[in-house]
Amino acid sequence: MADLSKRIAVLALVAAAGCRDSFPPIPGPFDRFYYPVGLAVRRLPPSPSYPVGRTALLVASTNFDLRYDYHVGGALLAVDPDASADALAGDPTLAVLGGVNIGSFGGEVDYLDGACAPLAAADPFVAGGGAKVVVASRGEQAIYLVDMDAEGRLTCDGCAQAVLPQALDPYDVIATCSLPGAGDVARAYVTHLRAPDNVGFLTELDLVLGTSSALYLGAYSTSSGGFDRATGRLFVSAQLPSINLVPLRWFNAVTLPPGGSPALVAHNVAADVHGALTRELAIYRYTDPATQAVTTTGYVRLELFDYDLASRGGGFVPTGGGLGVYDMNPNALGQPLMRLLKVVPICSGTGHVRVLPARQGARALLALTCDVEGTLQFYDDEVGAVVGTIGLDLTTGTPKLGRRPFGLAVEERAAGDCLPGPGSPGPCTRLYVSAFDSSWVNLVELDVAYPGGAAIVKRIGRERD
Amino acid sequence: MRRSALAILALAGCSSQAQPTTISMHEPTAVVAFMGWTPLRPRPAYPVPQPYLALANARSNDLRLVDLATQKPLMSPGYAFPLAIPTLARPTFLAATSLRDGGADLLAVAGLGATVDVVGTWVDGSDPTAGAGPRVVAQYDLSGFVGAGAEILAMIATPVPGAPAGSPPAAPAQPGLAWLIIAFSGSSSGGLDGIPPGVGKLVVLAFARGVDGSVELGAPPEAKPLQLDPVSLAVAPDLFHLYVATPDVITDFDIFPPAAGARQVQGVAEIDMSAGAAAPWPVRGLDARSPTALVAAASIGERGPDDPDLYGPPALRVYAALDPSGCGALQPIDCGIAVIDPSRGGLAADIAPPGPIVPAQPYRAPIQVAAAPLALAVALPSASGALQCLADNDPCNVPVEPNPPSPNRQPLMRLLANGQRWTPAVGAAGASDGRTYLLDLGRSGPASDASLLNDDATRAAVTGAESFTPVQADGSAGKAGLGLYRQYPPQSQEFTTDSRKLPQAVVITPGFTRGETWTLVWQGFLPGLRAQDFVLGLEGADLYLAFQTEMGGTWDVGARVGDPALGIHPVDLVQFSLPDAQFVGEVNPCALAEGTRYEAVIASIVPATDPPSPIHPGGALQLVLPPDPASDPFQLLCLRDYLVAAAPGAFLAGTDGGVRTSGLVLTGSISGYAGRPPLLSRDDMETGQQASKRFNLAWQNESTLSGEELVLARKARRFFYPNDSYSSGGANYPETCSDPLASPPTGCNPTTPGVAIGLIAGPMCADEPPGSGRQSICPPERLGDLQRDSTLIITTRSGVSPTFRASVPSSLPSSAIAFDRSYFPDGGDSGSVFYVTYRQDSLLVAVPGQTPNISTALR
Q1: What are residue B31's DSSP bridge partners?
Q2: CA–centroid distance for B763 within its chain
Q3: Which among B495, B621, B479 has a CA at the least distance from the CA of B548?
Q4: Which residue of A has its CA nearest to B812?
Q5: Which residues contact B317 (CB under 8 A, 6 or more apart)?
């Protein structure tokens, strides 16, 4: 009997050792995107090889199905979209500039580089053409502060920072930088989708001081953020509000002292739109060509639900997407008016909203993605309507952008830098649209004067197996 | 044998699924009714065209047809799925009209861009060469004609008007002809239409009946410049006026371009189409005081000022949803559905007579909608059936005999809202909260499910009032609090703090008083002016306080102190504290006792200037400096001396600056700053002059007001016309009576305008006279017993509970039309109904004349 026990123990030891040897952690791949979520685009500084610089597209792969290791299965990649092969032509090879592994379930990506003067003044690495890239992992409950050099290489030497234990699910990243002559602030804020008792947290990374702190935002966990550099205000939406109180909170992130408590102001979106969850916010300033009057407009991404059902305890039944257009001119107290101007029906599902480059004398043109509907839409506030859609293929019924288009980044391209299509010869606006489920990134180009003509001009990355 | 059984089972299965009732909607964006022939009801079995609905599916790029007789979809030839008519991408607009010749209607569809499809409403399969069923028979790409970048914003179809005649003039339809009118935004480059870039326009496509019964384009397109973006269209019942909603300024002209200095308004553009498609179309602006987003038109009679159930003769009215960019409490008009009377060139006249305190408005209050309107339609009474009525006052309940016939006789329709009501027309506003609100257009208001006047459980009322007195600094009970003087009825006049009696001491007016919580505070903080970032600085020899924050080398401006919306007055108090870190060596040489904050009286308000002051761009409050240190308990002179001694431009900053009023301040939870009631005195009580201290938040003619008076007047606008009569006098609202002090009040009319809130407030002292153990109004020498922040909280209820119908689950409405279901022999129980498309794949059938459960959602 004793012998048997010993044999079992030995076998168990061997088996355990064997397990370790047979299943080494498999990091997320660098040769492909894998369930990408966050996108950001950066123009690298000129170099001898690239006299006018080159584009680096930052993509956060999430390892959503945990095919790779939980702890290092995510990846932050920097790729050159122009040097990458065109998957539409059958070649999904990526021109990878750099990559670092991160935890699974990564979120959004943002960065600050030499365009942020306070950071360039404080950090020689940034002054030399580098950038600080921030991405979060919900799997690891960590935030990564990644160095990106002038060539697009990424390094993370112990750059992962654990967040406050109560602040769960770090997700959205908002880089803030004060305007020249308006302070010395360069910070990144990270939202937390969950927290005990559904309280709101932001993690603040002060990139000048190198410090990290948690900001308490009262009730309701935080979802997405938007920074208005002109006023220094950081706007934060609520992930899980109540049906009658959907706060859009903001504070001045430039006047906030390091480690200080934010002076919060909030607007209850539920008072304007019954049955709406708020997500991303985009802000645009329009100068009337005739009067030179400047108006500030906010575009709040709404996920609509049936209010009457919810108020009767029927849960949140989704009822489509909306874009809340808000008058954000200052009121007598200097705060945004937050007067609802209209609710624009948009495609269904979650996704990003981005303001496209300004058009002469015209109100904002926005692009937004909808994962459920598989659509990229263009909303023209000058016309007051959705003026362009890239959605399902009319013949096959498949989404042209791939399954679940989500991530969205915008780049202005100079004349000659646009691919054959509606934007050529340029200048044009290029959108990078990642398809979460298909795991590729589409390049969409357009002339902002004719958004209805936007077209997919290239695709990079390998379709997920 | 087995094969036979399987075949039988399969057939049985097929037959059981042969009549699916789901329409297979995929983001329906538009709905329109049309008359035509289809394979379901083809010729010659049906010699006249039959009514159908067409629904545009934006997500699947097709149309679905619904048989209006059964409200079921037309089936595809395979008979397993609903018929889908493929169209251009993302169909968004639908338009249909009769050609008034007994044939099939024109049906057109448009989407993004500048292309229009025409659907063959006559293709029923009876002519095999024409096709098996409805399909797109023609496509018109207008992009080259209208220029690059021009987008379709709206579309409507109409019979072609002949020469107008009669009084008021109306145009007969020209048989066999129809116009499709397409509204375009301006182009970024000129098109073949010859209209300059950036100019919004209408494009008219003229159609005529073909020899084979088809509808064919009969002439080249005609473009009509408007110099505005037309976002919604409606044709008047007179057939020759077209109404256009627009967010832009409307400039009048007969021939484009408008003359310099031409009249400009914001509202709805009225276009005269009587000269024909080839002639210029004159434009006249109808002033709605605001840009507009949606428009509808109808000819109806409206109630008069005295009787909500007696209607005047029918007249043309235009209904326009005001664009929130130009309406609201800060704007010249509140938001809602504006009622426009073209004969006045703008908003319809007020319904109400002038009141003793509040005059009649120069325009009719917009019909309030509880959320942003996204779709708008008007239903007229059905042609027959139980929900239609031809009698007058209190119709269908009063025998026509012996009452003499009334000259203003007109059809009425039943509307179920707070009982059975009869009205000449009902509006439907599909709103951003997913509800379709029903509007009682005969009474110019939202239909309400609750009694505004006569049911104590629901009527406009003061539902509670309570006085709160803060404890004194030593923790003992306060010695005085706020009370109200009750004016009505005369036998109950008294000054009281009793929470059971206080509600009766507050005067309200139905239609003016909103559901709100009001806070009356003695020397309280002005709304928003508390715990604000501020700086204290010197300008010349004067000490000033400005609400601003240093942001690097610039200022982030907080309160713009000169803005009348804030309600700051000279003689108000600023209150603040200063952290030690603001002083050299982090030692405050002017420190106050622990827990004490600095206070100073405001000497004057320095408003923001253009260009802005470099030191206080949002304006500043100049502070009164005491004459000497002996009368300076708050060390203001010390602070001034400190700043004088500091470097030029030095300032002290803090984060808890605020402004307290010198007396009472009233704040509404929705209205915000609502004014400053005077304080009732013992002398007023003893001389019977209580009414002299009456405070009214009351609307006045805005054209004569400015500054704070204008701000407050706009907060006291009418938002609803009472749609009932008093069931027993007007005792609940005595000031709507010509003699409010009579017992009971006489001459009462619930539409009489009045105050949003009125009260007489004063200080109630405990143990007054001292030793009596009773309470009474404070004598002058005891006014100091009334502590700061003594508060009286009042809650009011508007009494309005808007009637709505909704699809379940709901989503954003996209379009709405009205249809008279009494067209069908069994449709009389529904009468006139609304079909409202919802983007999450449903079609609401809203039946105004039946209880909400009768309204159904088709999917």
Answers
A1: B55
A2: 39
A3: B621
A4: A345
A5: B297, B298, B299, B300, B302, B339, B340, B341, B348, B441
**Interchain contact, A331 vs B554, CB within 8 Å:** no
- Residues on chain A touching B328 (C-beta within 8 angstroms): 339
Determine contact, residues B435/B756, Cβ cutoff 8 Å: no
* Residue where the block lists tokens 């769960």: A168
Spatial distance between the Cα atoms of A91 and B580, rounded to a whole number of angstroms: 67
Q: Which residues of A touch B550 (CB under 8 A)?
A: 255
Three-class DSSP category at B445 = strand
Tokens of A15: 């088996």
* Paired tokens of B687: 């001389």
**pTM, 2 dp:** 0.93
- Alpha-carbon distance of B65 to B71, in angstroms, equals 10
Closest to B655 (Cα-Cα) out of B593, B585, B581 = B581
Q: In chain A, what residues touch B371 (CB-CB under 8 Å)?
A: 272-274
Structure tokens, B282: 């004159």
In DSSP notation, B123-164 reads --SSSGGG-SS--EEEEEE-HHHH-TT--EEEEEEEEEE---
| Residue pLDDT tens, chain A, 465 long | 445 556 655 555 545 544 455 678 999 999 999 999 999 999 999 999 999 999 999 999 999 999 999 999 999 999 999 999 999 999 999 999 999 999 999 999 999 999 999 999 999 999 999 999 999 999 999 999 999 999 999 999 999 999 999 999 999 999 999 988 777 899 999 999 999 999 999 999 999 999 999 999 999 999 999 999 999 999 999 999 999 999 999 999 998 988 889 999 999 999 999 999 999 999 999 998 888 999 999 999 999 999 989 998 878 889 999 999 999 999 999 999 999 999 999 999 999 999 999 998 899 999 999 999 999 999 999 989 999 999 988 788 889 999 999 999 999 999 999 999 888 888 999 999 999 999 999 999 999 988 988 999 999 999 998
Q: How many CB pairs under 8 A join A and B?
A: 158
Report CB contact under 8 Å: A308, B293: no
Q: A343 CA to chain B: closest CA distance, Å?
A: 7
**DSSP labels for B406-426?**
PTT---EEEEESSSEEEES-E
Q: SS3 of B12, please?
A: helix
> Does A263 contact B at CB distance below 8 Å?
yes
- Is A306–B810 a contact, with Cβ atoms under 8 angstroms apart? yes
Write the pLDDT tens digit of every residue in B714-723: 999 999 999 9
**Set of chain B residues whose Cβ sits within 8 Å of the Cβ of A273:** 371-372, 432-433
Backbone angles phi, psi at B446, to 5 degrees: -65, 140
B432/A306 CB distance under 8 A: no
Asked if B89 and B62 touch (Cβ cutoff 8 Å), the reply is no
Q: Does A317 touch chain B (CB under 8 A)?
A: yes
Interchain pair B112, A386: CB under 8 A: yes
List CB contacts (< 8 A) between B113 and chain A.
452
Burial of B626 from C-beta contacts in 10 A (0-12 / 13-18 / 19+): middle
Q: Which residue of B has its CA nearest to A185?
A: B552
Task: Give ipTM to 2 decimals.
Answer: 0.91
For residue A318, the chain B residue with the least C-alpha distance is B811
- For B151, which of A340, A385, A389 is closest by C-beta distance? A385
The answer to whether the beta carbons of residues B481 and B467 sit under 8 Å apart is yes
Residue B463, CA atoms < 13 Å, CB-side half-sphere: 15
- B182 burial (CB, 10 Å; 0-12 / 13-18 / 19+) is buried
Taking contacts as CB-CB distances below 8 angstroms, the residues of chain A near B372 are: 272-273, 340, 342-343
A309 at the B interface (CB within 8 A)? yes
> Which of A312, A177, A187, A172 is closest to A238 using CA atoms?
A172
